[in-house]
Amino acid sequence: MGMCLPCLGGAAEDVVETPDPDTRRRQLAEAAEKRQKETSNRGVKNPEALERKKRKQEEIEKQAMVTPSPSGGGGLKWQMG
């Protein structure tokens, strides 16, 4: 006959306790962040250089938003005909 209860036959070592919900939630969040980092760096030889390039591109875009273009604004022209 098989053993049904963990208190019989020394099967208590086989029982795995589930962590409380807060700990479990934190572990899942950490695992998700790790997967996202691994996915974002897949196929990239130098992730630091890629990050610098992204930051530089964002700064250029931010500067373009702040400074008006020299051609007079948004580039749209009105024609009355």
List the helices and strands and how they pair.
Elements: H1 21-40, H2 47-66
- Quaternary organisation: single chain
Give the structural class.
mainly alpha
Q: How many strands, what sense, and barrel or not for the largest sheet?
A: none
Instruction: State mean pLDDT (0 to 100 scale).
Output: 80
What is the terminal-to-terminal distance? 97 Å
Total number of helical segments?
2
Region (Disordered): 1-81
Organism: Clupea harengus
Biased composition (Basic and acidic residues): 21-40, 48-62
Pfam families: SVIP (PF15811)
Question: How would you describe this structure to a colleague?
Answer:
The chain contains two helices and no strands. 49% of the residues lie in helices and 0% in strands. The N and C termini lie far apart (97 Å). The protein has a domain of 44 residues.
Feature tags:
mainly alpha; 2 helices; elongated; 81 residues
In short:
The chain has 81 residues and is an all-alpha fold.
